[in-house]
């Protein structure tokens, strides 16, 4: 609307000037000095008014652009006085100034956030001009790691610590390298990487320096804790059924001593002792294997009867499961089925799976665990552990084999992960199917039978 009004006023001024010039021509033609003088005066005023009408806008625009050039956005134009088109122009200027102020404020806020974030990170960060050596950015972590005070030019480091200067500023570290920095006479390992970037015509270099001594020590400590957790978990899993079986056998022997007329079943006694012996040997073998993780691929493979494997597991686990009221059922389709495995490690896998099923069967009516073995496609043997426990929630079933993932308050999260690793060593697979509230089935698939 203001633009249309501006054009209308401009058009009227041009018409008035045209009429004045037309009157002047008429006066000259008559000739009539009164018409000539009056039309000439009118033409001069019209030209002057037209000039001021046009030039005023350009002067204001030029003045505004000059302020923009010098980044002066503090000026405020009066929107409430003057012609309508000028007020609209002033309003536009003010909106531009306001928008630029908001953008600058946001940039300052973002810069402040970035500054605070860079100050909080543990990594040392420095950015400097490659041609002049002037420091663009330097955080406290860099000064602490490099053991230097604040400086404005990298030549400061060159004069006081030439070896450090050469290692950090002169050597190229594109992919990240480990260097040794001497801080107060102590060698400290640091990870360093650098990158060159351009701002306009100037080139800058960004260097990131991180002290990894503390990280390495912390990682090593965590690794030891996790290793101890794994060893404790597996040892306890084996000792618990051994202890339960030994307690059962001890009870039978006491009853035989107190009541000589009651004869003890020597076969049961011998089978129980044999189970304790084999599991103890298996535990020692497991500890030896775990101690030599770099040689864990050298499995002690042998032809193992699945029936004998099941019998050992039954003798070992039956007493503790009977005490908890949980049925342990073994199904073997082919009594002659044999597989090429490391018997001690596969026993450890089955013990872990059974103990997980025991926990899942707590507060379940008629709890039972079924261990079965059969041959699938192309004679591939499969050992299956099935329970009617509470099952595994669908949202976590993909993570149960992740090392140290657990939903148990006292769990270590390494049982199932270790089972998977042992099966991978046998070039086999672990498959799990579970329905929450109904139970879980885990298949141990081996490559082939013996």
Automatic annotation (TrEMBL):
Q: Which Gene3D superfamilies match?
A: Histidine kinase-like ATPase, C-terminal domain (3.30.565.10)
SUPFAM superfamilies in the record: ATPase domain of HSP90 chaperone/DNA topoisomerase II/histidine kinase
Q: Which PROSITE patterns match?
A: HIS_KIN (PS50109)
* EC number(s) stated in the UniProt entry for this protein: 2.7.13.3
Superkingdom in the source lineage: Bacteria
Residues forming the Histidine kinase domain are 230-450
Q: In Gene Ontology terms, what is a biological process of this protein?
A: osmosensory signaling via phosphorelay pathway
Enzyme type, top EC level: transferase
Keyword field: ATP-binding, Kinase, Membrane, Nucleotide-binding, Transferase, Transmembrane, Transmembrane helix, Two-component regulatory system
| Database matches in Pfam families | HATPase_c
Check the record and name the PANTHER family matching this protein.
SENSOR HISTIDINE KINASE GLRK (PTHR42878:SF7), TWO-COMPONENT HISTIDINE KINASE (PTHR42878)
Query: What protein is this chain from?
Result: histidine kinase
């Amino acid at each position: 609307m203001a633009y249309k009004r501006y054009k209308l006023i401009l058009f009227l001024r041009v018409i008035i000037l045209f009429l004045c010039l037309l009157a002047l021509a008429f006066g000259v033609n008559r000739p009539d000095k009164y018409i000539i003088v009056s039309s000439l005066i009118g033409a001069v005023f019209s030209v002057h008014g037209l000039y001021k009408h046009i030039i005023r806008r350009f002067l204001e625009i030029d003045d505004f652009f000059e302020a923009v050039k010098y980044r002066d956005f503090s000026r405020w134009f009066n929107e409430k006085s003057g012609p309508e088109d000028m007020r609209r122009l002033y309003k536009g200027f003010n909106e531009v100034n306001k928008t630029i102020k908001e953008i600058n404020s946001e940039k300052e806020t973002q810069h402040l956030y970035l500054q605070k974030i860079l100050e909080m990170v543990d990594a040392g960060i420095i950015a400097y001009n490659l041609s002049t050596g002037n420091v663009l950015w330097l955080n406290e972590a860099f000064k602490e790691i490099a053991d230097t005070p604040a400086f404005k030019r990298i030549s400061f480091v060159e004069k006081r610590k030439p070896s450090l200067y050469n290692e950090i500023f002169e050597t190229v570290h594109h992919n990240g390298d480990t260097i040794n920095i001497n801080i107060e006479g102590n060698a400290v390992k640091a990870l360093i990487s650098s990158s060159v970037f351009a701002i306009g015509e100037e080139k800058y270099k960004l260097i990131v320096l991180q002290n990894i001594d503390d990280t390495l020590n912390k990682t090593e400590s965590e690794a030891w804790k996790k290793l101890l957790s794994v060893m404790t978990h597996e040892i306890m899993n084996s000792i618990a059924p051994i202890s339960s079986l030994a307690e059962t056998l001890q009870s039978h022997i006491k009853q035989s001593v107190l009541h000589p007329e009651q004869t003890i079943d020597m076969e049961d006694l011998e089978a129980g002792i044999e189970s304790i012996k084999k599991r103890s040997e298996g535990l020692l073998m497991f500890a030896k294997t775990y101690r030599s993780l770099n040689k864990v691929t050298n499995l002690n493979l042998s032809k193992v009867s699945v029936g004998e494997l099941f019998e050992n597991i039954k003798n070992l686990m039956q007493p503790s499961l009977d005490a908890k009221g949980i049925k342990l059922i073994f199904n073997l389709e082919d009594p002659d089925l044999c597989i090429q495995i490391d018997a001690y490690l596969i026993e450890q896998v089955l013990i872990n799976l059974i103990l997980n099923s025991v926990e899942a069967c707590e507060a379940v009516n008629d709890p039972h665990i079924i261990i079965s073995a059969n041959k699938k496609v192309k004679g591939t043997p499969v050992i299956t552990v099935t329970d009617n426990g509470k099952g595994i929630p669908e949202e976590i079933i993909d993570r149960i084999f992740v090392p140290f993932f657990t939903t148990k308050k006292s769990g270590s999260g390494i049982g199932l992960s270790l089972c998977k690793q042992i099966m991978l060593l046998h070039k086999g697979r672990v498959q799990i199917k579970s329905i929450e509230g109904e139970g879980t089935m885990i298949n141990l698939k081996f490559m082939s039978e013996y």
